[in-house]
Design goal:
This protein is α/β, with parallel strands linked by helices and 565 residues long. Helix content is 24%, strand content 17%. Strands 6-7-5-8-10-14-15 form a seven-stranded parallel sheet, with helices on both faces. Strands 2-3-1-4 form a four-stranded antiparallel sheet. Strands 16-18-17 form a three-stranded antiparallel sheet.
Length: 565
């Protein structure tokens, strides 16, 4: 699950040091720097009244999302957020640009392959299904969800659209370009030089079809890489992929970008949206956490309201929403104190006791989101994966490097998830050279495969609930492909999200709690903090939810009428 991730190559380029510049006597004083905020209106407040309140607080409206009552605002006054929160017409303001001077950090779960290349072979020999593309024999996840079998019945329909709400999507990869919609794809996350580094284009708005971080590209491949005789194939290899760039090049996901992407998805009628991230800067957004200032509480209240509105808006317009549960080895129903928030600016994080009744991990704990946990090749919960009866919906392959303890596959990269990766990212990481060749020593971690016409794609391993969620999103897309009806307004197929969700749960491969019910990772060297107690029934429990998603069962089991819970 992504939020503010850094590659090995980026660590050396940022220092996190603040510079203090002396101003010579008599020199002109620079104009106060403006900051950008997302402001959220109170329920029932008109657009005109909200704008008036923003102006009264000292802000200038730059952009409006009237569908959910959010506004992008520029303000120079340091007390703007406090004034906005004090207004009876506004809930609060979330600062979109506070990451200046923050030292980078590396997510050890998703980026483990960068730090410790496996000394043993990454290949696995347990692939059961037909090998459609050259690297499919490394995709144990396709076997686990029975996508290989499902595509004989339903490989996905081009009229089904899957939004990848992430850091971008590299459409130059022939596996992704074959299914990519240039017409529908949008970039909602303009580069912020102080946060993302120098802009790649003059407008600072990267063109669609690019990804300067790589996370979204990896996610997209698992959903819908084309079965075209090159590279890999995805769970739903014939569906249409739509880039919804809501994450910065640096890995941050700001509130307004995510809200705008979700409302756009509803407006254009996307069928499925995958969300493998949490919204910065709070791992948990709380209503009134005593560890937070009044301004911070108002900011989180605004975030909670805006995300709920955006998710509901998308759901009500036919979008099935799928999200990653997160990589904190956390029982989300009884979370430990959080010491990671706020994650910017640097040095402001502190320990906060998390009240489950008033704190939410967003967007996955928002309304209508199918929460996905991660499992390894054995089906065992990945040691890092979050879990919990209240939040989990289903499980899916996300990778678990330490799976298979006592077997030859233990601690090998092949236990992770192989998927598409941009060439520029691999070159920045030093795993592919300037000529496009895999660097010696990385042959078991990075793969290059080219079409007969010489168009090459690149593939790398990662792990995380970010990798599990797109497997579930791919199965959801297959359900729409198989059972959807023609959408005469927008073209393509459509199926109500409630029907998709129930069918996904009904056809998942049930997995009962083990005996004993406490899952320990002591043999893998993990502390008791990683222990997970499985509770519930075979039909539904805290570790696997309704089960591991099953593509073949999903497309061969008759669709039953939706029953309201």
């Amino acid at each position: 699950m992504l939020s503010r991730r850094f590659t090995a190559g980026s660590v050396a380029t940022m220092t996190g040091l603040a510079l203090v510049l002396a101003v010579p006597a008599g020199a002109a004083t620079a104009a106060p720097a403006s900051a950008e905020y997302t402001v959220v209106a109170e329920d029932g407040v008109s657009v005109a009244a909200a704008k008036a309140a923003i102006t009264a607080a000292g802000g200038t409206v730059v952009e409006s999302n009237e569908s959910v009552g959010t506004f992008t605002v520029s303000a120079t006054a340091a007390d703007f957020a406090a004034k906005a929160a004090a207004s009876s017409a506004l809930i609060g303001a979330a600062n979109n640009e506070r990451a200046f001077g923050r030292a980078p950090k590396l997510d050890l779960v998703e980026q483990e392959a960068l730090l410790a290349p496996a000394s043993k072979s990454a290949n696995r020999s347990d692939h059961r299904g037909p090998k459609l593309d050259p690297l499919d024999d490394k995709l144990w996840g396709l076997d686990m969800v029975r996508s290989d079998d499902a595509r004989r019945v339903e490989p996905g329909d081009r009229g089904v659209t899957v939004g990848i709400l992430d850091t971008g999507l590299d459409a130059s990869n022939p596996d992704l370009g074959a299914n990519f919609s240039w017409q529908l794809s949008r970039n909602f996350a303009k580069d912020i030089p102080e946060v993302d580094g120098e802009c790649e284009v003059a407008s600072c708005l990267d063109p669609v079809g690019t990804d300067d971080y790589g996370h979204g590209t990896h996610v997209a491949g698992s959903v819908g890489a084309a079965a075209n005789g090159t590279g890999i194939s995805g769970v739903a290899p014939n569906v249409t992929l739509v880039e919804l760039k809501g994450g910065q090049d640096s890995g941050y996901f700001f509130l307004q970008n995510v809200v705008n992407a979700l409302t756009y998805a509803g407006d254009v009628g996307l069928d499925v949206v995958n969300m493998s991230f949490y919204i910065d800067p709070w791992a948990y957004n709380c209503l009134n956490n005593p560890a937070d200032s009044a301004a911070e509480q108002a900011e989180q209240q605004a975030t909670i309201t805006a995300v709920r509105r955006a998710l509901t808006y998308a759901h009500n317009r036919g979008v099935t929403l799928v999200g990653a549960l997160g990589n904190g080895h956390e029982n989300l129903g009884n979370p430990r104190p959080d010491s990671s928030s706020p994650n910017y600016p640097g040095g402001t994080e502190r320990t906060r006791v998390i009240d489950n009744a008033t704190c939410w991990d967003l967007p996955v704990e928002g309304p209508f989101v199918i929460g996905v946990s991660a499992v390894g090749p054995s089906g065992r919960k990945s040691d890092y994966s979050n879990w919990g009866t209240e939040q989990i919906s289903v499980a899916a392959p996300g990778g678990f490097t330490l799976d298979g303890f006592g077997t030859p596959s233990y601690n090998t990269a092949g236990n992770r998830i192989l998927s598409t990766m941009p060439l520029n990212i691999l070159q920045d990481q030093g795993r592919v050279d300037a000529n496009g060749n895999v660097v010696a020593g990385f042959e078991n971690l990075v793969f290059k495969d080219c079409t007969r016409a010489g168009k090459c794609g690149y593939y790398a391993y990662s792990q995380g609930t970010s990798m599990a969620s797109p497997h579930a999103a791919g199965v959801a897309a297959l359900i729409v492909s198989k059972f959807g009806t023609r959408d005469w307004r927008r073209g393509g197929l459509t199926l109500a999200p409630d029907w998709v969700e129930q069918h996904l749960y009904r056809t998942a491969a049930e997995r009962a709690c083990p005996t004993p019910a406490l899952i320990s990772y002591a043999q893998e060297g993990r502390s008791p903090e990683y222990d997970a107690l499985c509770s519930g029934t075979t039909n539904f429990n805290s570790i696997w939810g309704y089960g591991i998603v099953d593509a073949y069962s999903a497309v061969t089991t008759p669709l039953k009428p939706w029953v309201k819970p």
